[in-house]
Amino acid sequence: SSAASDVYKRQRSDLIVAEHAIRDIVYLTSTLHRVHGVKFAWWGHGRDRSVENPTGAKAAAEWLKSRLARFADGYFAYTQGIREEMIANGLPPDRVFALQNTIDIDEQRRAYEHVIPRRSELRRELGVESDYVLLFVGRFTANKRIPFLLDAFTRLRERRSDVHLFLVGGGGESLGLDRIPGVRWFGGIEDIDRLA
After folding, report:
1. 80-86 long-range contacts, Cβ below 8 Å, gap at least 24?
2. What is the mean pLDDT of the segment spanning 49-75?
3. How far is residue 74's CA from residue 44's CA, in Å, rounded to a whole number?
């Protein structure tokens, strides 16, 4: 589109990096960078890891996504394993980089230390008197095996009624978490101070 072309011209970027996710409209304009002499790279997981064996439209979308990745000037993979997978899918090794994606542990530590003086107060607010609290933080996708975690927790709770399981992450709406004794689901939390 001419609007996307104008963005490329105005920005004068050396490199454009976009998330490698099929839902992003950037796929439609990802090859325009060559026309304007701008380098373009993807950042991502390669395939959608929340779907084990895609079929139908999802399989077609994943195939298209892997093919479009070949047109980029570079690919920033989250891990070495993803880098190897992208190379096996046809990307040149000299254009695929593993960044060992992780969190900013210093920022996490500061947030945690900030709430330490309020731990007793927070426990009271959450209705938890026990020191036995298990925590899961992540997306509720099939590969995270949340039903297995819930089953294991239920068995543990039969032996130890003072244990609690806190779950943080998106996608738990259909699991009936509010019906499991000792389980508390907070949904997705992006505020680092609240998460600490």
Report:
1. 82/44, 82/45, 82/46, 85/46, 85/47, 86/46
2. 84
3. 11
Encoding tokens for residue 14?
A: 């050396």
Whole-prediction pTM: 0.56
Encoding tokens for residue 18? 């976009």
- Between CA 92 and CA 75 the distance in angstroms is 10
CA R_g for the chain = 22
Q: Give the pLDDT score at 1.
A: 45
Question: What is the spatial distance between Cα 114 and Cα 126, in angstroms, rounded to a whole number?
Answer: 18
Which of 11-15, 84-88, 132-136 has the weakest average pLDDT? 11-15
C-alpha distances (whole Å) from 116 to each of 11, 19, 58 are 45, 36, 45
| Site of tokens 């975690």 | 149
| Whole-Å CA distances, 166 to 6, 10, 76 | 47, 47, 33
Name the residue among 119, 136, 137 with its Cα closest to residue 128: 119
Contact predicate 39/16, CB 8 Å: yes
The answer on pLDDT for 144 being more than 60 is: yes
Six-digit token pair at 7? 């963005």
Residues facing residue 77 across a β-bridge: 44, 98
Which helix (H) or strand (E) is 18 found in, with range?
strand 15-19
Decide if 133 contacts 104 (C-beta within 8 A): no
Structure tokens at 115: 């709430």
Angle, vertex CA 39, rays to CA 36 and CA 40, nearest 5: 110
